[in-house]
Design brief:
With about 140 residues, the protein is mostly helical. Helix content is about 65%, strand content about 5%. About 5% of the residues are buried.
Length: about 140
């Protein structure tokens, strides 16, 4: 049972997934700090006179808790695009190239004959037997 679990864990997909999750989480923290520290202030500056609130508006002008912050949504979208691009170009694309190289290194085995080829071979053997040039075959018939 433990050997099967070990084999499962050591398959390429599981190890790759674990590495991608750990590195992706660590990299997400870096990108979040970048977007919160550098990108979000630029987005908030577009927001108008009250740059402390950011890009958005109050649904109820008397209640600050109804502020719709579009800057945070734009910030999260930029964050996602950056993380997705980095994960794709640093992990997915190189793994795809490695797998293609491994497949190129493997030679395909001999091709199995198709049904038509097998039937033609059987036909030729039967012709050869009926002409007497091939080995004699014994045919057993069952008359029910």
């Amino acid at each position: 049972m433990l050997k099967g679990f070990k084999d499962f864990l050591m398959r390429g997909n599981v190890v790759d997934l674990a590495v991608a999750v750990v590195i992706g989480a660590a990299f997400t923290a870096i990108v979040t700090a970048f977007t919160n520290g550098l990108i979000k202030p630029l987005i908030n500056a577009i927001g108008g006179s009250d740059a402390a609130k950011g890009l958005g508006f109050n649904v109820l002008s008397t209640n600050n808790s109804t502020f719709l912050d579009f800057g945070s949504v734009i910030n999260a979208a930029i964050n996602f695009v950056i993380v997705a691009a980095i994960v794709y170009f640093l992990f997915v694309l190189p793994m795809k190239h490695i797998q293609e190289r491994r497949k190129r290194g493997q030679e395909p085995g001999p091709a199995e004959p198709t049904d038509v080829e097998l039937l033609k071979e059987i036909r030729d053997l039967l012709r050869a037997q009926s002409n007497g040039s091939g080995p004699a075959a014994t045919v057993v018939r069952s008359d029910d």
